[in-house]
Amino acid sequence: MADAGDLDGEEGLLSIGELINDLREEFPDVSISKVRFLESQGLLAPARSEGGYRMFDESDVGRLRFILRQQRDHFLPLKVIKSKLTLWERGEELDDSETPSRTGLIDHRSEPLTESEVVRRSGLTEAQLAALVTHGLIDAPIGSVYPAETLVVASEARRLFVQGLEPRHLRAVKHAAEREADVIAQLSAPLLRIKNPEGREQARNVVEATGESTLALHRALFAAELRRLLE
Fold first, then answer.
1. pTM (2 decimals)?
2. pLDDT tens digits, residue range 50-73?
3. I need a labelling partner for 72 at 20 to 30 A (CA). Which of 4, 31, 83, 110 fits?
């Protein structure tokens, strides 16, 4: 059932529309669809009114503020935010400067982002974002939203544009990523052909582990090449 944005809240509770209005000053991009998405991923569990509408109490509001701050300030994937939520619920002190080194390459999920959100949060122009899509650095939006990795790609691309690079230059990075993924695809191909749940889980574990190792190897080799540039 759709939420009524102007539904009067029960005593001590907020409707989803009232919740959005309460958060708007700190989080201008917050939307009903974003709140629903976070609920679908298990990060929120609001109560329901007799009419089936979502109703949020003080704890829900605090929880949502925490999630949105982690996304805005640290660009953390939902999997990592979930682990931090456990500490937050216990009232334990969090070290926001520490970002886990293994966040799950293939389990990285984030809230859907519209074009205006990507542009505002990354600092790109609409034309630059369109150029990244044209050159294959960012997948075209599905409907009106972009995939989870878009904000990271867009933000880093903007920094490179400031240094004088153009979208066409970044295709080499995309091609390198594709070649590395092809190596992992060859390794995991036999497992990917297994259709039972155990086989699929084993394939996921192999792809995740080899992906993390390949990324670490790439960073080490790339760092060595950069050092040679300065010698």
1. 0.54
2. 888 999 999 999 999 999 988 888
3. 4
